[in-house]
Write a structure and sequence with these properties.
By secondary structure, this protein is an alpha+beta fold. The protein has one domain. The chain contains four helices and six strands, in the order βααβββββαα. Strands 1-2-3-4-5-6 form a six-stranded antiparallel beta sheet. The longest helix is centred in the last third of the chain and has 20 residues. The chain starts with a strand and ends in a 9-residue tail after the last helix.
């Protein structure tokens, strides 16, 4: 297995991780990743790994708030050799304050399954736009939980 990490999308070996994405489509993915990096205010860390017939790369924006609260924005792009598809998933998560501890809750998610390089580029651009919108939106976990009807504080 091969793995790595770096600061910014330009450190991710996109062509090696996504051989089905070539030429202009690969440039579109890289450009969308740069747009995400430009909207981020954290360390810009991206991680990646690859095996014999699979690969993935991801980034996560983590913010810790008072009282043990937290905000997480994650993007994962991975291949599944059994399905032959590339999956792009982005989520915003917050800490769970339910009676039964679920640890985290997704308050927003986008998911795409792509069969070819053009579809990967299209889906990655759409997902990047959504992520940039989330980065511009509130990162307050209380407000985000309230939007989706989750408890905002621990319930005794």
């Amino acid at each position: 297995m091969e793995k790595g990490e770096g600061l910014g999308i330009h450190t991710v070996p996109l062509a090696r991780l996504m051989p089905e994405v070539t030429g202009d489509d690969l440039r579109r993915v890289a450009d969308a990743g740069v747009a995400i990096d430009q909207a981020r205010t954290d360390d810009l860390l991206w991680k990646w790994e690859a095996g014999d017939r699979w690969s993935s790369f991801h980034m996560c924006v983590t913010e810790h708030h008072r009282g043990g609260d937290a905000y997480y924005l994650e993007l994962e792009v991975e291949s599944h050799s059994t399905k032959g598809a590339r999956v792009i998933v982005a989520t915003v998560n917050v800490v769970c304050w339910c009676r039964e501890d679920h640890q985290f809750h997704d308050v927003a998610e986008v998911r795409h399954e792509c069969e070819d390089g053009g579809a990967v580029a299209d889906a990655f651009e759409r997902t990047a736009s959504q992520i940039i919108g989330w980065l511009k939106d509130t990162h307050d976990p209380v407000q985000l939980r309230t939007r989706v009807g989750l408890p905002s504080r621990a319930i005794p």
